[in-house]
Design brief:
three-stranded antiparallel sheet; GMP Synthetase, Chain A, domain 3; 280 residues; alpha+beta; Sufe protein. Chain: A
Length: 280
C-alpha cells in the first residue's frame, strides 16, 4: 500500500475548483481515457494573471489531488510565473507522491503546458505562428508520450533509468516495446544532445564537443568490453573521422562495427546525414 501525505488525502477527499469555465481563455488536456487517466484544465486570465482555474479529471486519487492543488497554485499568479511550474513543484506542494504515482503530477504539468502553449494576451493564435520548436516524436504509443515529455521529466526530476521515466510519465508501462527508445532518450539527454539536434545546426566547437561526448560515454565503453576502443580524429561537415584501436583496429568486422554501431549511434543523436569514416 502506498504511503500518501495528509495533503494528498485532503485534496482527494475534498478537491478544490472542480468543474468547467464556459468562457475560458485557455483550455488544456493531458492523458487519455484509454490509458486510464485524463485531465482537462480551464483557465480564466485577465491582465496576464490567472483569475480562475477549474479542472475535470478521470483517474486515481493522486490524479485528483495533483489537479486540485495545481489549480490552487496557479490562481492569482502571472502567466510567466505559471509557465515556470514543474511537476516536481506540484508533487512538493502535496508533500510528496509515491514514485509509482509521480506520473499524476506530470499529467498536471502537461495539461497546464497544453493550455498555455497557444495562449497570448490577445487570445488564441495558431500554434505554428509562435512555436518554432522541432516536432515532437512519439515514443510510447500505448500512453501517447512524446520525447519532449520524457526530456522535460528527466530535466525536472533528474531521472536516470527507464523505470524512473515509467514512474513519472507511464511511458513503457504497457507493452514495453518502447523501453529501448526511452533509454536512447535518456542517453542522448545526458550526452548533451536531443534527437532534434542536427550537426548542421551546431558550431564547429559544439560539433566536436557533442560528438566526442557520445564517443567517449556511449560508444567507447561498449568497444572496450570486446578489447577495442575508438578515437575521434576530425570532423568535416557531416563526415566524422575516427580511428579504431585495440582489437577493433584489426578486426575483419571493423566496417560493420563502424556502420552498424558507431555511425548508427551518432545518427540517432544528430540525424541521418552523419557519415563515419575510418582513418587507418
Amino acid at each position: 500500500m502506498w504511503d500518501y501525505s495528509e495533503k494528498v488525502m485532503d485534496h482527494y477527499r475534498h478537491p478544490r475548483n472542480v468543474g468547467t469555465i464556459e468562457d475560458a481563455d485557455a483550455v488544456g488536456t493531458a492523458g487519455s481515457l484509454v490509458c486510464g487517466d485524463q485531465l482537462k484544465i480551464y483557465l480564466k486570465i485577465k491582465d496576464n494573471i490567472v483569475t480562475d482555474a477549474k479542472f475535470q479529471t478521470f483517474g486515481c486519487g493522486s490524479a485528483v489531488a495533483s489537479s486540485s492543488i495545481l489549480t490552487e497554485m496557479i490562481i492569482g499568479k502571472t502567466i510567466d510565473e505559471v509557465r515556470k511550474i514543474t511537476n516536481k513543484d506540484i508533487a512538493d506542494e502535496l508533500d510528496g507522491l509515491p514514485p509509482e504515482k509521480m506520473h499524476c503530477s506530470v499529467m498536471g504539468y502537461e495539461a497546464l503546458e497544453d493550455a498555455l502553449k497557444e495562449y497570448k494576451s490577445e487570445g488564441y493564435i495558431p500554434l505554428e505562428e509562435i512555436n518554432n520548436e522541432p516536432k515532437e516524436k512519439m515514443i510510447c504509443t500505448c500512453f501517447q508520450v512524446t520525447d519532449k515529455v520524457i526530456i522535460d521529466a528527466i530535466k525536472a526530476n533528474g531521472l536516470k533509468t527507464v523505470e524512473d521515466v515509467t514512474n513519472y510519465t507511464k511511458a513503457g508501462g504497457a507493452c514495453g516495446r518502447c523501453k529501448d527508445a526511452i533509454q536512447k532518450v535518456i542517453d542522448n539527454y545526458y550526452s548533451g544532445v536531443t534527437e532534434q539536434e542536427k550537426i548542421s545546426d551546431l558550431t564547429p566547437t559544439q560539433r566536436i564537443l557533442k560528438i566526442n561526448n557520445i564517443i567517449e560515454n556511449q560508444i567507447s565503453p561498449e568497444l572496450i568490453k570486446d578489447g577495442g576502443d575508438i578515437e575521434l580524429v576530425d570532423i568535416k561537415d557531416n563526415d566524422v573521422y575516427v580511428k579504431l584501436r585495440g582489437q577493433c583496429s584489426g578486426c575483419k568486422n571493423s566496417t560493420m562495427t563502424l556502420k552498424l554501431f558507431v555511425e548508427s549511434t551518432l545518427k540517432d543523436a544528430f540525424g541521418d546525414e552523419i557519415n563515419v569514416i575510418e582513418v587507418k
